[in-house]
Amino acid sequence: MKALNLKVFRDLKSQKWQFIAVIFLVFLGVALYTSFYMSYLNLSKTYDTFYEKTNFEDLAVTFNPAPEELLSEVRKIDGVEEVYGRLSAYGTFEREGNKVTLKLLSIPEELKVNKLVIVDGRYPEPGERAVVLLKKFADYHDIKVGEVISVDINEKRVSLKVSGLAFSPEFIWIVESGSWITTPKTFGIAYIPQQTLEEILGTAGIISEAHITIYDEDRVEEILNRAKDIFADYGIVEIYKREDQPSNKLVKMDLDGFKELSFMFPSFFLFISALMVYVLLSRVVREQTGSIAILRALGYSRKDVLLHYLSHSIVIGVIGSVIGAIGGYAFSVLMTAEYTKLLNVPYYIAVVHPDIIAQGLAIGTITPLLAGISTAYAASRIEPAIAMRGVEVEVKKVRVDEILFFLKRVSMLTRLALRNLFRSPRRTIYSLFGVVASVVLILTSMVFLDANDFAISMQFDKITTFDMKITTSNPEIYRAVKNMPEVLEAAPIIETWVVIERDGVTKSSILYAIGHNQNMLNIYDISGRQRHPPPKGIVLPEILTSKLKVAQGEKVEILTEFGRQKVIIAEIYNQPLTPTCYADIFYFSKKTGVDFNAIIVKFKPGMENQGKNRILDIKGIRADSIDDLKEYIDELMTFFYVFISFTLLFGASLGFASIFNTTTVNILERRREIATLRMLGYTTKEIAYSLLVETVIIGIIGIVIGVPLGYMSAKLFFESFQSELYYMPFIIYGRTYAFTILTTFAILLLSLLPGIRYVSRMEIEKVTKEIVS
Amino acid sequence: MNELLKLIDVWKTYRMGAVDVHALRGIDLEVKSGEFIVVLGPSGSGKTTLLNLVGGIDTPTKGDILFNSINVSSLDEAELTLHRRRNVGFIFQFFNLIPTLTARENVLLAAELVENPRDADEVLEIVGLKDRADHFPSELSGGEQQRVAIARALVKSPPLILADEPTGSLDFETGKMVLRVMRDINRNEGVTFILVTHNSVIATMADRVVHLRDGRVAKIIVNEEPAEPEELSW
Ligand SMILES: Nc1ncnc2c1ncn2[C@@H]1O[C@H](COP(=O)(O)OP(=O)(O)OP(=O)(O)O)[C@@H](O)[C@H]1O
Ligand SMILES: [Mg+2]
Predict the structure, then answer these.
(1) Quick one: which of A35, A45, A42 has its CA closest to A357?
(2) How far apart are alpha carbons A501 and A482 in whole angstroms?
(3) Cα torsion A309, A315, A318, A323: sign
(4) Largest Cα–Cα distance in chain A?
(5) How far is the CA of B132 from the centre of ligand 1 (A)?
(6) Residue B134 phi/psi, 5° resolution?
(7) What is the CA radius of gyration of chain B?
(8) Judging by DSSP bridges, how do beta strands A187-193 and A130-134 pair with one another?
C-alpha cells in the first residue's frame, strides 16, 4: 500500500489548486460553524454569569411615586426572593462644553438585586454625596474615580464625588425603554445613595421603581400581577419580565442572530465543498480508469482501490477541518472580544468548547467522505479487463443549439461551448449550485446594508428632521428658543410612554403628540406615504392593535405620564422602524391638560453649532442633539460593516472556488481537444472565448436562479429579525442587484483566468505526443 | 513543379535536465508542391518532431524551415497560428475528433477558420462519408473517424497535409482505404502530403521516401512508379 499512499499525494499535488480550493471551502465551513457557535456559547455564558453574579431582576414595575413601605408587601408575595426599590431623577452636568444628561438611580446600603460590579473605586456610604458611574460612560468622558462633578438636579447644583466605576446587568445596552439607543456622549447612568438623592430632591420614603427577583419561575405571571396590584393605586408606568427588559431584549436578539448564523453560513460552504469533492474525485477516477484497471490486474483488491480513493476525501476533510477548527477557535475569541467591546460588560468569557470543536471536525471530515463514497465505489468496480481494452469515454450527445433555432447560425466554437455545458450535466449543475450559493450569500449580505441605509435615511431624512430635542415644559424657554437668531423653526411636542390595556393584555409604546404646522417630526406609513395626526383620537401601530385585539373607532384606556385617559382609536397603521403612537397636540393637550413637554428645533443652515451651544447654555433642561446620535450609530455600525464585508468575501470565495474547480477540471479533461483546436489554427483567444461563453451561460443561469432565491432567503432571514421594537420594511435597492450581478460576473471571469492561462501555456506539441504515444 | 517546402540544416534539441536529447541533427530537405512524401524511420528517429516543426506547433533549435519562401522558424506565436490555419492540415494516429460535435460539425470547425473554405459536405463526399455526416464520432468506426479527420484537414484547402501514422490504429483493409483517399486527394487536388510511418510497406506508394535515422536523413529514395494503395500488403 505504500506506493499507493504516495499516489494519493501525487494526485493531490498534480491538482493542488483544485484541492486547495475544496480544502478552503471545508475550512470556511468548519471555521464559521465553530466560530459562530462558540461565540454564541461564549456570549451566552458571559451574560449568564454576569446576570447570576449580579442577581439580575426577574421582573420590574415602574409606577408614579409611592411610599417605600409598599416594598414589604411585595416581599411577602409567595415566590419573591429579593426586592430593590428605587427612586430616579434626571440631572445634567457640563463636560468639555457639552451638556451631558445623567439618569440618577438611587441605591440602598446594600444592593441585593441588579448588583453593581465595581471595577474601580468603591460603593458609596449611605448619605455620602457620591455616585457610581458606569465604567464605559466614565471612560468616554475620561472621568476618574475621586473626581467631583457638579450636577444640576431640579435647578439645584450639587457636587458629587465619583466614588466608583461599575457595570450593571441592567445596562449591557443603554436604552431608555422604548426609545433609541443613547450615546454616552450625552447620556449616562449614575447610581447614588438613596439618602443622598432624597436630600437633594427633598423627598423621604418615596420610590418609583421596584426590581424583583423570584425563586419560583413558574409563578412569574402571578407574581407580576400581584406586584402590579400593590402599586396600582399610584399608577403603573411600566411593567416587564426579564425577557422584556430593554437591555436584555437587545442582548438576546443579537444572541439569536449568532446562533442562526452558525447554522446558515457553514451549511452553504460544506454543501458546495461536497459537490466539489465529487467533481474532483470523479475526474481523477475517470482519468485514471486505465491505471485502476492495471492496479486491479496486478492484484490489488477492490477494497484497496476503494480505500485509496476515499483517502483523497479524508485528506481533504482532515486538513480542512483541523485548520478550520483552529481558525474557528481563534476567530471566536476575536469575535467575542470585539463584540463585547460594544457592550457594557465587565469581562467576557471565551473558552474552547471541545464538543463544538469535535462536532466541527466531524462535520468537516464526514462531508467530503460522503461526497467521495460513490465515486470511490465506482472506482473499485472497474474491471481489470479494461486495462487491455482501453477506455471509451462516453459523451452525451445533446444538441441544444439545434433545438433552439436562433442558435443555428452561431459559429462552431460557440456551439462547442453550448454542447460542453451538456457534456457532463451533473458537473454543470454543480457549478451552477456554486454560483447560486454565491449569489444568495452576496445578495443576503447586501440586503442588510440596504436595510441599514434605508433605516438611517428614513429616520433622519424623513421622520426626524430636527436638529435638537429639548425636554422642558417651560413656555418661557419655548419662547426664548423660538426667538433665537440661529433657530429656523421650533415646535412644541408631547412625548410620553404609553401603556394600552385591553382585557388584561397590556402593551407599552411611545406616544408623540405633534402639531400640523411643523415638518420636523413626521409620520410615515410602511408604504412610505406621509401621514398626519388625526384631529381627534390617536394613531396606533398595527403591530400593537393586533396583539390587543382592538379596532379602529373603538375607545381604549391609555395610561401615560399624565395619568389615565379614554381615547378613540382614529387610525391603525404601522410605521417603519420604531412603531409608535401618534396624536394631534391640541387634542392631546385638551385631554391631559399639558401643553407640551418637549421642543424640537431646527437650526438655520450653517448655524447648527452656534445654535446647539446656545441651547445647551439654558439651565434646567435636557437637550439631545441628533448629530451626536448619528455619530454614535456610525460607531456601532463599524462592527456591522466589518461583518458584512466578511460575508461578502466568503460569498465571493465560494463562487470563485466552485467555478475555478469546474472550469479547470473541464479544461484538464479536454486538453486533448484544446490541443487539437490549437493545431487546427484556433488562437488562445478564440478558445478562451469558447470557455467564456460556457462560463457566462452558467453565470446567467446562476443569476436567474440565484437572485429570486437570494431574495427569498434574505426576506426570510430578515423577517426573523423583526420584532415589536423595530419594524422594518423589506427593501432591496437597485444598486444591490447591480452589485450582486456584477460581482458574480467578476468572480466568474476571475476564476476562469487560471484556466485560460493554462490553455495559453499549453505546449501543444507535448499534448499531441501524449496523444500519439 | 515549384518548391513548397525547404528545410536547411534543421536541428531540434530537447534539454532533459543536464542532458541534451538531439531529436533532429541537421535535416536538409526539399519538398515540391504536389508531392506525396513518406517519412520512414524507426521509433525515436525524429519523425513526429519533424512534422511538428513543419506544421508550426514547435520551433527548431537551429536552422530554417522555408514554406513558400517564408521562414516558419522565425515566426512568433500569432504568426505560427496563422500558418497552421492557412497552410497546414493535420491528421493524427488517434483521429482527435471533438466528441461533442458530429462529423460535419467537426469539419465545419476547421472550415470556419479560413476565408474561403471548401464545402463541408463536398469534402465529406470526397472521403466517402456523405451519408454519415450527422453522426457523432462515437457512432463511427475507426476508419470512418480517420476519414473525417482527413476531411477536416482538407476543408481548409491547405497546400500541405501532414499525417502522423494515420493508419496506425486502423486494420489493414481500413488503412488501405484511408491511404487511397489521401492519394486521390493528392492526385486530384494537387495537395502535398507528408506522411510519417514506420511501416515500410506504405513507403512504396510514395513519390519519394525520406529515411530518417537518429535525427538525420539517412537516404532519400525516389519511386519512379509508386504503387497504388490497393497493391500494398502487410
Ligand atoms: N518533449 C521532448 N522532450 C525530450 N525529448 C523528446 C521530446 N520529444 C521527443 N523527444 C525525443 O526526441 C526523439 C525523437 O522523437 P520523436 O517523437 O520525433 O520520434 P518518432 O520518430 O516520432 O518516434 P515514434 O515512431 O516512436 O513515434 C526521441 O528520442 C524522443 O525521446
Ligand atoms: Mg512519432
Answers:
(1) A35
(2) 37
(3) negative
(4) 105
(5) 36
(6) -95, 10
(7) 17
(8) antiparallel
pLDDT tens for each residue of A517-528: 888 989 888 888
CB contact under 8 A, B94 and A678: no
Element (H, E) at B119: none
Contacts 24+ apart (CB under 8 A), B116-122: B116/B157, B117/B155, B117/B156, B117/B157, B118/B154, B118/B155, B118/B156, B118/B157, B120/B151, B120/B155
* Residues on chain A touching B92 (C-beta within 8 angstroms): 768, 771-772
- From the list B58, B92, B98, the residue facing A416 with the nearest CB is B98
- Beta strand A538-540 with A555-560 is unpaired
Of residues B138, B152, B164, nearest to A772 (C-beta): B164
Q: Coil, helix or strand for B89?
A: strand
In this predicted structure, the answer to whether residue A3 has a pLDDT above a threshold of 80 is no
* Backbone region of residue A205 per phi and psi (left: phi > 0; alpha: psi in -120 to 50; beta: other values): left
B48 Cβ inside 6 Å of ligand 1:
yes
Kindly list the distances between the CA atom of residue A439 and the CA atoms of A432, A434, A706, A720, in Å, as whole numbers in the listed order. 10, 9, 5, 21
CA distance linking residue A83 with residue A630, whole number of Å = 37
Mind spelling out the 3-state secondary structure of A273-326? HHHHHHHHHHHHHHHCHHHHHHHHHHCCCHHHHHHHHHHHHHHHHHHHHHHHHH
The residue with cell 474532483 is A280
Q: Whose CA is closest to A683, among A766, A767, A759?
A: A759
Mean pLDDT for chain B overall: 88
CA pair distance A26, A654, nearest whole angstrom: 11
Give the pLDDT band of residue B227 (cuts 50, 70, 90).
confident
Query: Comparing A400 with A505, which gets the higher pLDDT?
Result: A505
Under 8 Å between Cβ of A490 and A615: no
Backbone angles phi, psi at A737, to 5 degrees: -60, -45
Backbone angles phi, psi at B118, to 5 degrees: -80, 165
Interface test with A, best of B82, B96, B115, B169 (most A CBs within 10 A): B96
Sign of CA dihedral A704, A708, A711, A712: negative
Q: Which residue of B has its CA nearest to A676?
A: B96
Kindly state whether B92 is in contact with chain A, defined as any CB-CB distance less than 8 angstroms: yes
Q: For residue A165, what is the enclosing H or E element?
A: strand A156-167
CA distance A653 to chain B (A): 31
Residues of chain A contacting residue B138, judged by C-beta atoms under 8 Å apart: 392, 394-395, 397
Of residues A216, A286, A212, the one with CA closest to residue A61: A212
**Ligand 1 pocket, B14 CB below 6 A?**
yes
Closest CB to A772: pick one of B48, B86, B138. B48
**Which residues of chain A have a Cβ shorter than 8 Å from any chain B Cβ?**
392-397, 411-413, 415-416, 419-420, 423, 672-673, 675-683, 764-765, 768-769, 771-772
Task: List the grid coordinates of B11.
Answer: 536541428
The complex's ipTM works out to 0.74
Q: Which tens digits make up the pLDDT trace of B141-163?
A: 888 988 899 898 889 889 999 99
Strand partners, A566: A557
CB of B46 closer than 6 angstroms to any ligand 1 atom: yes
Q: What DSSP character marks residue A18?
A: H
3-state secondary structure of A93: strand
Tell me the pairing of strands A148-153 and B3-16. unpaired
Cβ–Cβ contact B99 with A under 8 A:
yes
Ligand 1 binding pocket mutation candidate from B48, B58, B217 (most atoms within 8 A of CB): B48
Task: Give the whole-angstrom CA distance, residue A150 versus residue A243.
Answer: 36
